[in-house]
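Quick start: read one record
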Amino acid sequence: MVWFWAILGILAILLTGSYFCAQAAFRVPKNLEKYLYKLPNTPQYSPYAKQVREMIDKALAIPYEDVWTTSQDGLRLHGKFYPAADPKAPVQILCHGYQSIAEKDFCGGLPMGLADGCAVLMIDQRAHGKSEGKYLTFGVKERLDCLCWIDFIRKKCVPDVKILLYGMSMGAATVLMASGEDLPENVVGIAADCGYSSPRAIIRKVLKDRHMSVALYPVVRLGAILFAHFDPDSVGADTALERCRIPVLLVHGDDDRFVPCDMSREMYRRCGSKDKELLIIPTAGHGASYLVDYDRYRKTVSAFLQKALHREG
């Protein structure tokens, strides 16, 4: 009987711990708008704060159409569609990062895409913005949401519309994980800025950053499975890229203190596409490559887009 109560107590502790881990790591607060203009107050980001605020204001002022689709597990997902003058123009699908806002992560990417003659679909990831859901899944379910948005664009635009997937941070991991799925021929390329190699790898890295033992990872994983209904070990961008055959551009700042730059280097090595590029921006922090060296970033992304759009075979 003593053993029974001891085992029951251990199970109760594990369940309680996994619940709180799920709430801390995967639950998305509904008041993210108040962080729209907030950047870390550090030497890496402070010099760009004013510039970013101005870019966000300009992005918010661009007219758009509210659009909706439904995820494979029944969530109503929201996006903002920015049409191009040419109805046959290619479309960029922009996927923002962890507990973030699209206009913040793509205050640079949105105007770049429009300037390059593309229509742009800027989505609210599940549980963010106007999209339904309580939990994010580090790209595991988001990659399937991406397939739903691709199908939406194929129906909204011309059937042979060319599509570029473009993600930032968790959004980068999302589009890279999607590369391992059965993508339609419409998808001509993937651009990923500061993405992580797998949910497992980044969660373990964050545990270390917070001076916690990686031995806690099974508890975090249990919380993901029981409460957020996904397994962080089930898929990774690194393994998905091994099956990728379309052009891929990986961008990373070499002073990224959240997602290590080496993750992009590893993914570049493992990527199965013959058309792959890796752009490393010296001194840039997480998600700040376009701020540190805008000209190089802009030229590289635009050149990649043009090459992907005109690629044969």
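The mean pLDDT is 94.
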